[in-house]
# Entry
Amino acid sequence: MKLYYSSTSPFVRKCLVAAHELGLADRIELVTVVTMPTAHNDALMRDNPLCKLPTLITDEGQALYDSRVICEYLNDLGGGRLIPAGGGKWAALVDQSLADGILDAALLMRYEVVLRPAERQWPAWRETQEEKARSALGQFERQVAGWPADRLDIGVIALASALGYLDLRFPDMGWRDAYPGLAAWFAGFDQRPSMRATVLKA
# Structure
């Protein structure tokens, strides 16, 4: 398999953490690409018309995107441990969606500051995105005390990837002080070998 890769992409990291947890990481070739909302990568666009990361090329040559589809494919390939059966499935998938929403908001915050000229930046836009991210973090803060200590599914993998991205791009956000239960959970989960092997790097 081939995975289009960036060392700063939290959605790529989510896929790689899943691959490590499923014992599939050594079957994936990482292909580093540079892509931004204002600049496309021709090779990536040939395999994904949206020119977005992550994109996985299977051993059979099929292109899969986005991260949710890729993680579901890897989960099936690796024995199905990360998307629970029964009622737990929906809780894990909702948590994945909520965590991905944190990332969507964080990426829009990042683009507003880094890509838009200073005179055209819209503070209310950034503040609204941060409110969304904080609202989702608050939801997780209310839930985390009820999680099993050994919880491992696509929901918490997505959450850990989101928190790692906040650490990388928004170190002054102070999410640990605001959400201490979540911070305590992440301190433990972040020590998993899958997380240590996939640390985001600017």
About this structure: The first strand starts at residue 2 and ends at 5. The longest helix spans residues 87-114. The mean pLDDT is 93.
